[in-house]
Amino acid sequence: MNILISNDDGVFAPGILAAKQAVEDLGNVFVVAPDENNSSVGRRLTLFKHLRLDSCNLDDGSPAYSLSGSPADSVVVGVNYVMDEKPDLVICGINQGVNISCDITSSGTVCAALEAVSLGIPAIAVSLFVDPKTAYKQDENGEWYVDYDFTLAKKVLHDLVLKIKNEGFPDGVDLFNLNVPSKYESEDVMVTHLSHKMLDKGVIDNTNKEKEDIFRYPLDENQNSDDLIMIVSDLVKEYDEGSDGYALIVEKRPSLTPLNANMTFKELKDW
Q: Residue 164 and residue 123: Cα distance in Å, rounded?
């Protein structure tokens, strides 16, 4: 197999190295990804503007390319410029954060996979749901960091790609959206449907006391915030049984959602 890997966290994020390590025994792997974080940019494309493409190396020394564009741009450039042959599969991830529900249309990870589908290539979007209660740790100097444990995500991704290599994609499925919890109670993958939504969104300003720390975090010292607002979100806690959110967050097990890029609803009947 020829496999193209991209992401929305950036080419030097640990998740893209984990994805490469998960599948490098299954084919020829190429990595093309944004040169910086592009989370929540959806399927943004940079048309008729110059982009910078640089060769680089991942932390294990393996070659990769960084692009001054979006995740979807990276897929287009990888397929149509970097690779000599069209890839058999595009993998987007491993994203450092959850991507579930109908909110996936804002995800740079999932929309990069959708861009691959538009180019005639089946794709997998894969994300790691990090448990904030266990993932945030302190080093010997007391500095906080996030401990991303990709162990199960790599195993499930490898097994999924191996099955695809041997059997192909199911009829009618364009892409898989795979979400794996870092702290899990079961390794068994549940095939799921999209839940209604992932995030409850709101808007705050500098009068909000409850989220004051969040509002002020990106501000420069002494910056005037009177005319500034911020969109904030909280993760939904309740999900329908059988949905991706139910598997991932309630049952704490991997969720695999088969998707079709054509969002047409075909029957209106007597409407």
A: 10
pLDDT per residue over 77-118, tens digit each?
A: 999 999 999 999 999 999 999 999 999 999 999 999 999 999
pTM of the entire predicted model: 0.93
SS3 76: helix
SS3 140: coil
Q: What is the DSSP letter of 174?
A: -
End-to-end CA distance of the chain: 46
- Helix 14-23 vs helix 151-167: angle between axes, to the nearest 10 degrees? 40
Instruction: Indicate the DSSP class of residue 141.
Output: T
Residue-wise pLDDT tens digits, 44-54 = 999 999 999 99
> Which two structure tokens, joined as six digits, stand for 178?
């795979």
Number of neighbouring beta carbons within 10 Å of residue 82: 18
